[in-house]
Amino acid sequence: MPEPENPNQNNSPVRSRFTSIFRGSLRWIERGLAGFGAMVAIYWLTMDVSVVLSPSMQPTLKGTNPDNGDRVITEKVSRWYRTPRRWEVITFITDSGEKRMKRVAGLPGESIQMLRNGELLIDGQPVECPESLDLKYLRFGNLIEGKPVPCGDGYYVLGDDLKDSDDSRFNGPVPSHRIMGRAWLIVWPMSRVGWVH
Fold it and tell me: Where are the catalytic residues (predicted)?
């Protein structure tokens, strides 16, 4: 008596081709997910994109809401091998968990004060702002009495537009562990694309 014919026997080439395509597709998906995961990890470790929501850093950074705010890339790499420098714009996290961008005026271990004429002193010595910035700081908050304010282990930061800047004059120096990195590049809107000075 002859053996019954296997109904799947004739489909084996089709099935093996389907299996091969399926396995190949799974490999491509797996590689794509791994590549995407690697890109996310690299982004998370090396940069951050923020939207400027306050006019406190005008004219360097502009914006008042998510629709018109500059999109700024903060690079985190330089923090691995050096500390923030005076007059750089840094991105940091406030006590309430908000991201802010301000300009470094005082460094750890220094003291900062302001005379009546608006002149900024570091450790009792006048310090000049770079001419390209044209900054005019006002005596408010902890600078109002003209006494030296110690930076301690933190960074004394100020906004470029002193009419509207919630900075170290009111909140004290920014601790090093709260600093994310250096505000580096404006990427949007197109009319504002360029390095953060």
Answer: 56, 102
Model confidence pLDDT, tens digit, residues 63-95: 889 889 999 999 999 888 999 999 999 999 998
List % helix, strand, coil for the chain (3-state, nearest 5).
Answer: 30, 25, 45
Task: Tell me what the mean pLDDT of segment 98-123 comes to.
Answer: 92
| Closest CA relative to residue 92, chosen from 163, 142, 167, 169 | 167
Instruction: Please answer whether residues 157 and 179 qualify as being in contact, where contact means their C-beta atoms are separated by less than 8 angstroms.
Output: no
* Whole-number Å distance between alpha carbons of 159 and 54: 10
Catalytic residue among 56, 76, 165, 168, which? 56
User: Are 106 and 114 contacting, i.e. CB atoms less than 8 angstroms apart?
Assistant: no
Q: Which residue is catalytic, options 50, 76, 102, 165? A: 102
Query: Cα–Cα distance between 195 and 197 in angstroms, integer?
Result: 6
Structure-token pair, residue 17: 């081709």
Which two three-digit tokens encode residue 37?
């995961």
Q: What is the pLDDT of residue 62?
A: 92
**CA-closest candidate to residue 63, choices 71, 49, 52, 74:** 52
Our answer to whether residue 136 is catalytic in this structure is no
Q: Using the structure block, give the residue that is written with the tokens 């990427």.
A: 187
How does pLDDT run across 145-176, given as a tens digit for each residue?
A: 889 999 999 999 999 887 768 899 999 999 99
